[in-house]
Amino acid sequence: MLSLYNGALDVPKILKDWYEAEAKSNYGAYIPFVGTVRSEDGIDGLSFDIYEPILESWFKDWQKKAKEKGAVIKMAHSRGDVMLHESSYIAAVFSPKRRVALEFIDEFVEDFKASAPIWKYDLKNGQRIYAKERSTAIKGSGILA
Amino acid sequence: MVKVEFLGPIQKEALELEIDNLNEVAAILQKDDAMKEWLDNCAVAVNDTLVTSLECALKDGDKISLLPPVCGG
Prior knowledge:
The complex is a heterodimer of chains A (145) and B (73). Helices cover 32% and strands 35% of the residues of chain A. Chain A is of the alpha+beta class and 145 residues long. Chain A has a single domain, classed as Alpha-Beta Complex (Aldehyde Oxidoreductase, domain 3). Chain A starts with a strand and ends in a 15-residue tail after the last strand. The mean pLDDT of chain A is 97. With 73 residues, chain B is α+β, with helices and mostly antiparallel strands. Chain B has two helices and five strands; from the N terminus they run E-E-H-H-E-E-E. Chain B has helices spanning 22-30, 36-39; strands at residues 2-6, 15-17, 43-46, 49-51, 63-67. The A-B interface holds A 35, 48-51, 53-54, 57, 77, 88-89, 109, 112-121, 130-132, 134-145 and B 7-9, 22, 25-26, 29-30, 39-45, 48-54, 65-73.
């Protein structure tokens, strides 16, 4: 399941909804990762652009990988502005066994950071500034140069 | 006509070009000063599928997207 929201995520509700959806699915492990906007470098918050068609196909590939391991992957992300101490990202894995879920969430979040077509901006002094230094070129970039 | 769109922080209006392949897109964008800082680190998608080579024939109605470096979460 991939869910996109305008603005900050309602973390307790999303975690509860996911828990309840899988409560009777016989998974032994539910491992969520929640990303929260921290106060640093004088920012007021973060803002996000998402290119949804490629995000959806990227996520579908990960759903297939999860299924091969008998697991389920879920992800929620914000569009637009998310202020300090609010959350913009949740990923969670359900699996029969703990070890699979722990390894899978690590691989998933790493690839999310490197490949998911989402752009981050710092909100600072009323400006929206692309977080270029913290961004990663997608694998295969540079072919037009 | 092929549409070229620029995603995320690239502040550039989409282009409509009469072209047959990605080499022509590269040649056009390399002449654009505003694109110089982006071409080295942009990924390219044709009809929403990422490609890793310029050897890609284009047809009328295709959509090319340029994806600059990402940072979700």
